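[job 4471] stage=fold_predict status=RUNNING
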Amino acid sequence: MPFSTSFVPEIRFGENLHETIGAAAKAFGGKTAALIIDSFLAQSGLAERVVAQLKAEGIEVRVFSDFAGEPKIAHVRKATETVTGADVVIGIGGGSALDIAKIAACCAASGEDAMHYALAANPLPKNPLKKIMVPTTAGTGSETSATNIFAGPEGKKLWIWGAETKADLVLLDPALTATLPATLTAWCGMDAFIHAFEAATNRNAHAGGKFYAHEALRLLTDALETAVKEPNDMEGRGKVLLGSCYAGIAIDNCGTAVAHNISHAMAGLAPVHHGLATALGFEATLAWLVEADTADLNAAAHACGLADAAALPAFVSDLMNRCGIARVLPKAFSALDAAALSEEMKAPENQPMRRSTIREIGDEDIARFAASIMSLPKAA
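[job 4471] inference complete, writing structure tokens
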């Protein structure tokens, strides 16, 4: 079938590659740089080291790091203030930091608020600022993606999509992921695995996306448990980071499906780590999904080293067990019920993921999936 693939930014991979950020910014002709970096990374001294690099190249630097957790519209607006007037934007951190940086690079170029672009309400500016993205987690794939997620004024997850938000340069440095705690390594790694799987198996899957998705599945299947249990194993860390990046390219081309419908709906109800929510949604729906028994589902299973799609549910549950993922919801979900989750899953902003799923999802399916998720134990 005919398809087209979106452009992939320049990607450089290597241990301690973050030490070249200053030179990379200078190569873009930057005289003023805006650094958007997770607060805990800023406190770790990484921001200070990157600022020193940039100043050594004669580049003036502004830093915004006053954020944590899922990106909110207030974070995006503050970042846009920091970015306005800069020549190059550098995003360092997890998906939140990268999404904030990419959105701010567009808003600063146009002078428009992020809400002007939410849910594709208006075209993005054609002249965004130059962007260098440096992921420190291996999960979202935001460094190569044209999709950017943030919470709007009412707390609902919104997205801004467009090639204009993409990075101009991606620096993949496994050394920057080594301090990520085991739990977060597992949650983020499962997010990447599910990105690859859903991109390779949904209604929008095509050969261009599956090329990256299947390699991501191979890398993540091979190395995720090692990255969780042996954090200083740079080969394992590198495979997971590269797998996450390739999975990001895959969803940039083919999108996601039902597990992300659930995780986005959960985030609309209460704070929850995206990787955990997606893993729980994936496990709750996978046995139902593989009943479709499509060629794409079986090809994805083969990429994981399995005989066929029927083996996937047990494989995924075992992988989650080996990586120490507890099936427990945050305490805030104690006050919520399955009906609330069902309504969020049917919300307009979550319908693209519902429609792209290879099996038709009826309202009765949504009710069953929501009940399964909400029956999980809640944290004390």
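[job 4471] summary: The chain is about 50% helix and 10% strand.
[job 4471] exit 0
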